[in-house]
């Protein structure tokens, strides 16, 4: 993976759930969403964003979860963002 623009955020070890997921992905040699770096860097500041995302993507909805994932992937592709 190419380095992030925010090198200090990416290099920060962090603690908590997202820091652990980053560590495990690196150990396994698999990629992961760069947004996780922000969640690990400032967990107290990003808690609301993580909860919002889970509610939107996994909470009750007339759209099935798979359709919501497809919309997110399509939007990311349109923004030239790896999903």
From TrEMBL:
InterPro entries: AhpD-like. Gene3D superfamilies: AhpD-like. Keywords: Oxidoreductase, Peroxidase. GO terms for molecular function: peroxidase activity. This is Peroxidase.
């Amino acid at each position: 993976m190419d380095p992030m623009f925010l090198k200090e955020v990416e290099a920060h070890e962090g603690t908590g759930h997202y820091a652990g997921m980053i560590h495990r992905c690196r150990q396994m040699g698999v990629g992961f969403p760069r947004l996780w770096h922000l969640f690990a860097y400032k967990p107290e500041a990003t808690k609301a964003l993580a909860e919002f995302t889970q509610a939107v993507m996994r909470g009750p909805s007339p759209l099935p979860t798979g359709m919501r994932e497809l919309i997110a992937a399509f939007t990311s592709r349109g923004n030239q963002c790896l999903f």
